[in-house]
Amino acid sequence: IKVGLAQSRITPLIEDTWVDVDGNARFEPEKGDSFIDRNSNGVFDAFWLAGFHNSRPAQGVHDDLWARAIVWDDGVVQLACVTVDAIGLFHDGVITLRDLVRKQVPEIDHVIVSSTHCHEVPDLMGLWGESEYKSGVNRDYLRYVQQQAAQAIVDAFGQRQPARISIALIDSIGHDIIMDGRPPACFDSVVRMMRFTQAESNEHLGILLNFGCHPETMSSRNLQITADFVHYLLEGVENGIIYDGEVKRDGLGGMALFAQGAVGGLMTTLDAETHDPWMNKTFAQDDCSFDKARAQGYRLADKVLAAVEQGDWQLLEKPALRLRAKTFHFKAQNRIFKLGAVFGVFDRGIPQLKTIRSEINLFSIGSAWFLTIPGEINPEIVNGGIETPAGRDYEIDPVEAPPLRQLMRGDIQFVLGLANDEVGYIMPKTHWDVKPPFTYSEKEAMYGEVNSLGPDAGPVLYGEVKKLIEEF
Predict the structure, then answer these.
(1) What is residue 439's DSSP assignment?
(2) Phi, psi at residue 207, to the nearest 5°?
(3) Which of 131, 258, 327, 350 is such that its CA lies 20 to 30 A from the CA of 63?
(4) Distance between CA atoms of 80 and 3, rounded to whole angstroms?
(5) CA atoms within 13 A on the CB side of 329
(6) What does the alpha-carbon distance between residue 119 and residue 214 come to, in Å, rounded to a whole number?
(7) Could you read off the pLDDT tens digit of each residue along the chain, which spans 472 residues?
(8) How does 116-133 read in b/e, with b if 16+ C-beta sit within 10 Å?
(9) Are 112 and 361 a contacting pair, CB within 8 Å?
(10) Which of 115, 153, 121, 149 is nearest to 52 (CA)?
(11) What values do phi and psi take at 257, rounded to 5?
(12) Alpha-carbon dihedral 292, 295, 301, 302, rounded to 10 degrees
C-alpha cells in the first residue's frame, strides 16, 4: 500500500484587533469597546471565535492552525482524509472541498473531512457571530480553508510512497486530562493509533491519533486563536516535549494527525485538574491558561511516544482498502436551527426545514475499521453505557443498542467524529431531557439538547450506521 502525508497552514491573517474595555471577551461598542482599523477601510474586519458565546472576536494568533491530510492507495482504491483545526464544516462545504480536489486529482475516489472541533478558532458554521442573529462566517476565510485543505490532499497524493501500516491503542488517557460534563460518566478516552513507516527503511512517516475530547481548555475568555491542547499534542509527538529550550523527550519527526472521536456528552478538558510532571505543578479545575493546555497536550504526547517505543503494535499484512459512503437525512426538529437556516445564520446550501442531508462512511484498511460520524456523538452510543434515568422525556428502552463498536468488526475500530458534517449533539433518546423533572436530580435542564437536531438524531444515525455495517 502507498501512503502520502502533507499539511497546509490555515491560520487567518488578523488585520483588525480591538480593545476589550471591561475584559468580558465580548465586543460591545455601547460599553466603550473599540476596534483598531489597521487596514484603514473603516470596517471592523473581525474573525469571530467559535464556541461558548457570540461577539468574541479574535485579538491575535497564539499558534498556527493546520489542515493535515493523508492519502491511502492500495492500487485499486485511493482514499483521502484531511483533519482541519475548525469548529466544524457543514456537508455542503465538504462537497465544495471535494470538488476542489477532484479538479486537481480526479484519481482520488473519496475525500473525508474531519474537524478537530476546537473552540478557539474562527467560526465556520455561523452560530458565533456578532450576535445570535448574524452569521459569524468570514466567507473569504472559509474558501481559504477549503482551498488549503484541498491543497494538503493534493500534496499528500503527490507524496505517496510504499509504506508499512501498524495499529495500536492506549487504554486510557486519564481523567485528570478529560472530564465528562454530563452524567452518566462515559468516555471515548482510549487513544487509537495508526502509524506509517517507509516500506524499505521502516523510517517513521507519520501517525494518526483518534480519541474524543473538546479542545477548549482556554475557555470563553481567551481571545487568541489557538488549536488548544491539540497544538501541543501534535507538536510534542512531532518535535518533542520541550520546556524553555530543554528537550524533555524526543519527538518522532514526520507528521501527526488528530482525528476527533466521540465527543458528545460532553467530553471536555474544562474542569480537569491536570498535573504537569515536567513543571511539577498541578493546574486547578478553573485554570484556563496556555500552560494547562500545554500540560494536557504534552501528557498525551508522552503517552503516544511511550507507546511507539514500547507498545504492542500490530503490522497490517498486505492491507487492502474497502469503502462505503452513504448519504441520508436527519429529521430537523430543533426550532432554533430551523430559524437559523431561514435567516442565514446557518448556510447548508439549499435550506430544508424538515430534513437535513448528511453522510456516513465506513472503510477498512486491513483489519483496522473506520466509521465517520457527522457530529458530536455520545460515547454511550459508540462504546455502551446508555441509561434510562428517572425523569427522562421518553419512557422507552434504549434504542441505540448494542453499541456501534460492538457491531463493527476489525481488530481496532476508529470512530471519526465531526466528519463530513457537523449536525451537533447526537445522544441516546433515553437521555433526552428538556422537560422537568430533570434526570439525575438536576435542578435545571442539562446542556446538549439546545445544540442537537432533536431527540430522533440518535436513533436515526444509529439505524443508518447499523444498516451500513450490515451492508459492508
Answers:
(1) G
(2) -150, 140
(3) 131
(4) 10
(5) 8
(6) 8
(7) 999 999 999 999 999 999 999 999 999 999 999 999 999 999 999 999 999 999 999 999 999 999 999 999 999 999 999 999 999 999 999 999 999 999 999 999 999 999 999 999 999 999 999 999 899 999 999 999 999 999 999 999 999 999 999 999 999 887 889 999 999 999 888 999 999 999 999 999 999 999 999 999 999 999 999 999 999 999 999 999 999 999 999 999 999 999 999 999 989 999 899 999 999 999 999 999 999 999 999 999 999 999 999 989 999 998 999 999 999 999 999 888 888 877 788 888 665 678 999 999 999 999 999 999 999 999 999 999 999 999 999 999 999 999 999 999 999 999 999 999 999 999 999 999 999 999 999 999 999 999 999 999 999 999 999 999 999 9
(8) bbbbbbbbbbbbbbbebe
(9) yes
(10) 121
(11) -125, 140
(12) -160
For the question of whether the overall pTM of this predicted structure is more than 0.85, the answer is yes
Residue length of the chain = 472
Grouping H, G, I as helix, E, B as strand and the rest as coil, residue 338 is helix
Three-state SS for 130-178 is CCCCCCCCCHHHHHHHHHHHHHHHHHHHHCCEEEEEEEEEECCCCCCCC
Could you give the CA distance from residue 330 to residue 332 in angstroms, rounded to a whole number? 6
Give CA–CA dist 432/132, Å, rounded: 24
Would strands 2-9 and 161-170 be described as parallel, antiparallel, or unpaired? antiparallel
What lies within 8 Å, CB to CB, of 445 at 6+ separation is 433, 434, 436, 438
In terms of DSSP bridges, do strands 191-198 and 246-249 run parallel, antiparallel, or are they unpaired?
A: unpaired
CB hemisphere CA count around 225 (13 angstroms): 25
Strands 2-9 and 66-73: antiparallel
Q: How far apart are the C-alpha atoms of 235 and 254, rounded to whole Å?
A: 11
Neighbours of 433 (CB within 10 A): 23
How many CB atoms neighbour CB 215 within 10 A?
29
CB of 207 closer than 8 Å to CB of 194:
yes
Are 372 and 414 within 8 A, CB to CB?
no
Element (DSSP H or E) covering residue 412 = strand 412-416
Match 479538479 to its residue by C-alpha cell.
103
> Is the CB of residue 382 less than 8 Å from the CB of residue 115?
no
Q: Which of 54, 51, 82, 56 is nearest to 68 (CA)?
A: 82
Strands 355-365 and 368-372, bridge-based pairing:
antiparallel
State phi, psi for 68 to the nearest 5 degrees: -115, 125
- Residue 326 DSSP one-character state: E
